[in-house]
Design brief:
This protein has 154 residues and is an alpha/beta fold. Helix content is 38%, strand content 16%. It has a domain of 80 residues. The chain has a 4-stranded parallel β-sheet with strand order 1-2-5-6. Helix 3 links the parallel strand 5 and strand 6.
Amino acid sequence: FTKPLGIKLPPYFDIVHFDQAAAIFNKYPLKFVNCVNSIGNGLYIEDESVVIRPKNGFGGIGGEYIKPTALANVHAFYQRLNPQIQIIGTGGVLTGRDAFEHILCGASMVQVGTTLHKEGISAFERITNELKAIMAEKGYESLEDFRGKLRYID
């Protein structure tokens, strides 16, 4: 197989699972992991209508609701994966600040889903401009200046 190979990961919630998954992923020539897919089987209730949502209202929980979990997964895998495995931060990227946070946690790039669906392709320019403004405010000239540089409080 000669094409780049990557995988989209479910959200992990236990540190031991990050360790076990990373140990397996590091054995293979992966080019990227996508952190994270939506959390399955969320139920949306629309109390103002009788419209049935697809799948009887059951679907993946994503967008802003999954962002804290997505950031934790991006950072945990950034700490554990071989450096040649890039991370795509997915979940809750609504603004340039959200993109900044994913990159700060270690993402090489971000995926925009819910926002793209709501706003269309103009979301990309808006998010990019917001990210550039944050970078200028903080004195960063490139993504590498802050990628994975999340610091801990002692």
